[in-house]
Design brief:
Blueprint (H helix, E strand, L loop, with lengths): L3 H24 L23 E10 L2 E2 L4 E6 L2 E7 L5 E7 L1 E8 L5 E2 L3 E6 L4 E9 L4 E9 L2 E2 L4 E5 L4 E4 L5 E7 L2 E6 L4 E5 L4 E8 L1
Parallel strand pairs: 1-9, 10-17
Antiparallel strand pairs: 1-2, 1-5, 3-4, 3-6, 6-8, 7-9, 10-11, 10-14, 12-13, 12-15, 15-16
Length: about 210
């Protein structure tokens, strides 16, 4: 039979043993350390392509020539195109690079060139000048349009001192060149009249709405 002191010691030992067992059950088996999670890098935002300005001027017999077809070729392929405005120029901002500038003029003209190379630098302006000479008759140039905007492949007929027919290009642009002076009628959907003077260009907007 245990004495009072021995009994208390046995109870205390049993309580300590139960406490250790309880701690072991709660903690569970040791787990392996986890590696830190990796995050995929965020790709940088693409920077805008460098651009520059270019101005093309076309003169005929020393005078500005409006509505001359201007095309910019990059790598041998058309990149953009347009027509000169009444002061004889086409201006715009395009990506920096090496271009070939092409103009299309009436066949009776002789120009210093119809194709010129142009290097457009970043934040710089490049100027390309074309000078043409010759006996220029009158002409009618303009655009065909419908309710959606400029109209490509529109078949236009011209009647007057001479009769002609043409088809607008992909930009809706059309031209009747080498015309004698007089009054003309342009037909597509709605007829439009145009007056041609010697050596002058008449402008017409021909609609179909």
């Amino acid at each position: 039979m245990l004495g009072g002191s021995s009994w208390r010691a046995a109870v205390a030992s049993a309580l300590v043993a139960l406490f250790i067992v309880a701690l072991g059950c709660e903690s569970g088996p040791p787990t392996a350390p986890t590696a830190p999670r990796e995050t995929s890098p965020v790709p940088p935002s693409p920077s805008p392509s460098p651009r520059g300005a270019i101005a093309v001027t076309v003169t005929i017999n020393g005078e500005a020539r409006p509505i001359v077809w201007v095309e910019f070729q990059l790598g041998g392929f058309p990149w953009t195109y347009g027509t000169t405005i009444p002061n004889g120029t086409w201006e715009g901002r395009i990506p920096a690079g090496d271009y070939v500038v092409v103009i299309k003029t009436p066949p009776a003209l002789t120009c210093d060139a119809t194709r010129k190379s142009a290097t457009v630098g970043t934040d710089q302006q490049t100027v390309v000048n074309f000078a043409c000479f010759g006996d220029v008759k009158g002409s009618i140039q303009g655009f065909a349009f419908n309710e959606y905007g400029t109209a490509a492949s529109a078949r236009l007929t011209l009647t007057g001192p001479v009769n002609r027919e043409t088809i607008s290009n992909r930009d809706g642009f059309f031209a009747f060149e080498d015309l004698p002076p007089g009054e003309y009628l342009i037909r597509w959907c709605t007829p439009v009249t145009a007056s041609v003077r010697e050596g002058a260009t008449a402008f017409a907007m021909v609609g179909c709405t």
